[in-house]
Amino acid sequence: MKFSTTPVRGTVDYLPQEMEIRDRAEKIILETYKENGFLHIKTPILENLELLTNGDDGDNQKLMFKTIKRGASLDLKKPDLTEKDIVEEGLRYDLTVPLVRFFSNNKEKLAFPFKAIQIDEAFRAERPQKGRVRQFTQCDIDILGEASPLAEIDLLISGAKAYEKLGFKSLSIKINDRRVLNQIIINSGFEADKITTVCISLDKFDKIGTDGVKCELEQNGFEKENINKLMSIFDKLKSAKSNQESLEVLSSIGVGEEITSSLSQIIETVQKFISPSFNLVYDATIIRGQGYYTGTVYEVYDSEFGRAIGAGGRYDKMVEKFTGTAVPAVGFSIGFYSVIMLMTERENCFAGKKLALIYDKNSSFEDIISAKQKLIEKGFEVSIFAFPKNFNNFAEKLKASGYKCLAKLADIQKIISL
Fold first, then answer.
1. Which of 192, 224, 240, 344 is deepest in the core (most CB within 10 A)?
2. How big is the CA angle at 194 (ends 138 and 291), to the nearest 5 degrees?
């Protein structure tokens, strides 16, 4: 029987050259985050369904992969089966909910505020497309225990430094605040308990446009008068020509000074410490679909790609939801899959040190290993290969695997570029 050898839809095989880029990018991100005082942790990919389904009221729950019960606990003959009878755990759809569980379980052992790094896999049953897959790496930093805007400032500067070291030249960091959205939605006539539902639709501005958002809100049963009032506020904010003008519009529609002052402080401070080619701007259309956000939300856009390659926000209520104790929390995540894709397309990759050491069939094992060790001491990453029959074909395969040069055992001082 012949089996398909292609990866499962929405997943990807990574060739050696691709892994070379991913490994080096991950190392840069991790080192940058550590330089800024964040601590590396790791959590399981499996979490209890009760935790996953209580952590987020947004679209991510609909995209969750769930695991089937095993052994005697799974009884498919039971009458009137429900989902609870069949499924037991879920694959994490992001790293935030697992972090909150981790913090709640280990808080007595952690310095406070706690600054965490997570670089790990997450899973969502999304429709695969360019820059979006079902199994993906997230590169998260979070601060738990700091209520002031200093946490957002620290996160955004640290994230921007990582992008800069990865070679990104022109980025826009767009920031908003869920409290602003709450005020706008209520001022437009919507009930407070419908805010999350409205936000889920508003988060689709970039995908379906203003008309699509209006249509979806109508389909959800909201009054046209309220929808039109909401859209008019967004139109007014979109027409603002500067951050200051946007914040003045917010003040004019009743958004409190505490919120506008916080946004202004974050924007002005971060801009002073990031690359001049990176811009931090207020954008009312930045919503973030996750239901756990309570304050600032932000997304990072590459000027040419046109979609977010990083995001995050404040989620002050989540720890309290799990433990009963209020702990402020805020995070930032680099979209690793999109970042690597863009770096590869633009050949914005790293100078590799991979070297192929070529020996002939009469060479002794001792001579081969001795030569290899000498090249390693010079800073190369060395693999050994017997001299091939078709050298040109072999050299092309080396290049495709990320090798930058080769040396022959007879003269290891002569390094040949591929």
1. 240
2. 15
How is the beta sheet containing 308-314 ordered, strand by strand?
Answer: 39-40, 114-123, 135-144, 329-335, 308-314, 296-302, 171-177, 278-282
Tens digit of pLDDT for each residue in 144-186?
Answer: 999 999 999 999 999 999 999 999 989 999 999 999 988 889 9
What pLDDT score was predicted for residue 271?
Answer: 96
Q: Which amino acid is at 396?
A: E
Distance CA 216, CA 210 (A): 10
* Per-residue model confidence as pLDDT tens digits over 242-264: 999 999 989 988 888 999 999 99
Residue located via tokens 């930045």: 286
CA distance linking residue 180 with residue 182, whole number of Å: 5
| Among 220, 167, 165, 158, CA closest to 195 | 220
Q: Chain-centre distance of CA 343, in angstroms?
A: 16
Residues in Cβ contact with 365 at an 8 Å cutoff, skipping those fewer than 6 apart: none
Please tell me the pTM assigned to this model.
0.83
